[in-house]
Amino acid sequence: MAANQNPPRRITAALVDLNGTLIDADGAPFGGAINALQRLRAAVSVLIVTNTSKQTIESILDSIRQLVPDVRREEASRARGGGQRLSGGRQQPQQRKVFSSLTATRKLLEDRCLRPFLLLHPDVLPDFEGLLTGDNPNCVVVGLAKEAFSWGNMNQAFRILQKRDSQLIAIHMGRHFKEPDGLSLGPGPFVLALEHASGKTAQVVGKPQAAFFQQALGALGCSPGDAVMIGDDVRDDVGGAQAVGCRGLLVQTGKYQAGDETEMGVQPTATLPNFAAAVTWILQQNAAAG
After folding, report:
1. Where are the alpha helices (H) located in 44-124, listed in sequence order?
2. Is 72 helix (H, G, I), strand (E, B) or coil?
3. Which of 8, 49, 208, 209 has its CA 20 to 30 A from that of 189?
4. Which residues make Cβ contacts (< 8 Å) with residue 169, sequence separation at least 6?
5. Contact predicate 276/257, CB 8 Å
6. Distance CA 13, CA 43 (A)
7. Is the overall model pTM greater than 0.85, yes or no?
8. How many Cβ atoms sit within 10 Å of the Cβ of residue 92?
9. What are residue 227's DSSP bridge partners?
C-alpha cells in the first residue's frame, strides 16, 4: 500500500464508485464488499456515485440492492443536492444513497429545454422518455452506445452539430470499461471524434467534472476536505475527486491496470487491493485522527 505523508484528518463522508469497485464485470459484488460497505456506512456518510451509461437507473438500483437492500428509486432520481430547510436557515442534506450521471444529464436537458439526439445504448433510452424530441434535434447526447456507435449514427450526430446553436453533451468521457472478456472502448473516444469533426467542445456531465463531485458532496452536506473517493479509475474517480479537494483511494480491481497510480499526473492518497481494504484504511485513518 502506497500512502501520502499528510497528517491524518477525520473522514466524515465517502463517495464510492459502483462498477469495478463494488461489483465486477458480471454485476456480482466483489468478495467482502457487502460487509465492508456495512462497516463503512456505520462509520461515515456514504454516497454511491456512478458514471455508468449502459444501464437504466432501475437496473443500477438492482445492482446496488445487492449491497444496500433498502435503497429506493427516489434516492437516485434527484440530480442535485439540497434538502429540507431547518430553523435558522440551515439546510438538512437529503439522505441519498446514489448519485448518477444519467439523472444529472436528464436534468440538464430539461433545464435547457433541449431536443436531444440520443447516441446511447438502447437499454438506457427508457430513462429519457418524455423529453422534447422530434425531427429537429438541437443537441447530441453521447453515452456508452456500444453497437449504436455506427457510421450512420455518428454521421447523423455530426450533421446535427453543424447547426450553429447545437450542443454536444457527454454523459462522461470514460476511455474504457471492464467487460467479462477484457477492456472495451468507452464513450470518450467517440466524443473526441465528434469534437474533432464538428469543431465543438463537449460539455461533460459526469466524473471527473468538478460540478459532478460538488453536487455529490452537496447531497451529503460535507466539505471536500472531509470526504474521500474510492474508485478503480485513477483519472475519473481519483483525479476528479482530488481536483475539488477530496482524498482519493485507488482500488486495484475493475478497470485498474498495473502502474495506473503513477500515470496521468495523479497521485492517489492511497492505492489498495480492493474496496474492503479501502474501508479498513478509512477506519484506521479515523482512529489515528482521534
Report:
1. 57-65, 74-77, 101-112
2. coil
3. 49
4. 105, 108, 109, 116, 139, 140, 141, 142, 202, 203, 205
5. no
6. 9
7. no
8. 11
9. 13
